[in-house]
Please model this.
Amino acid sequence: GRTLSCLKSLGFIYIINNDEVLFDGYQKKNDVLDCLESGSTLRFMIPLCLLDDEEVTLKGTKKLFSRGLDIYLDIFKKQGIYYHLEEDSITIKGKLKPGKYAFRGDISSQFISGLCFVLPLLNKYSSIDITTKLESASYVDMTLSAMNRLGVDIERLGNHIYILGNQKYERLKPAVVEGDYSNAAYD
Model:
């Protein structure tokens, strides 16, 4: 749905064959992504946009942006990443840095997953420390399990996630992924 559309806008090349999505490369990206009302898409795309030092605008509805991005805004401030937040968009420019991240456990797992997708691609080791009980541990574990299947060395031990740097995602035999009707509604 919406996440695939934004990945395409970023420059990821994929083919949909029946119920399978096969990724097959990456080319220059567009500088505007429309997330509509999809919170997961916005939270997953922001870290991906910070792999390159190019300006990208992520758009959506006022309702989407009213849900807050404080987790990412704090990272931007600490790392010197440019951002300009409006009521229906955010423009960002900069490169995400590897290192130690810390969050409360009651935040959306989508913030944690979004960072987990990208941190292994950076040039050094990173870690994420959850400072309180991780309320959505099953979603985080699902993300890490899928990443392990793609050859990424990432591990959660209690409230700590350990991520080696300089990694690459490997090709995987096709796998069945359960549909997400709440995310499909944004197409």
In short: The two ends are 6 Å apart (CA to CA). The longest helix spans residues 137-149.
